[in-house]
Specification:
The protein is mainly β. The chain is built from no helices and 11 strands. It has strands at about 1-5, 10, 15-25, 30-40, 45-50, 55-60, 65-70, 75-80, 90-100, 100-105, 110-115. Strands 2, 4, 5, 6, 9, 10 and 11 form a 7-stranded mixed beta sheet that branches. A hairpin with a 5-residue loop joins β5 (about 45-50) and β6. The radius of gyration is 13 Å and the shape is globular. The model has no long low-confidence stretch (mean pLDDT about 95).
């Protein structure tokens, strides 16, 4: 499975960005799609995930109510709508895909939120 992410950039606090990721390859085997992020000097953390079956979602507590994850009908793309961004959201965001575990990661896309 290959993942291609886009949509990062520089935004002021309170602004919005939408990240997109397209999966290719053996996508029929995927059980979930999601987003991780890694801020400078910090460990990578999961931000949000969505199942490909029932589209159940999960969010990191700090982004609940501000971020929304979604997929397209073909379930080969995943999106992360990020609203009311905070400087603490500054990180490299990685698209991820799971079969049984989070096995696949795309290249990162940088999100910078200025105060």
């Amino acid at each position: 499975v290959q993942l291609q992410a886009s949509g990062g950039g520089l935004v002021q606090a309170g602004g919005s960005l939408k990240l997109s990721c397209t999966a290719s390859g053996s996508i029929y085997s995927l059980s979930g799609l999601g987003w991780y992020r890694q801020a400078p000097g910090k460990q990578r953390e999961m931000v949000s995930q969505i199942t490909t079956a029932g589209r159940s979602t999960w969010y990191l507590d700090s982004v609940k109510g501000r971020f929304t994850i979604s997929t397209n009908d073909a379930k080969d793309s995943v999106y992360l709508q990020m609203n009311n961004l905070e400087p603490e959201d500054t990180a490299v965001y990685y698209c991820a895909a799971a079969v049984r575990l989070w096995d696949y990661f795309g290249q990162g896309t940088l999100v910078t939120v200025s105060s």
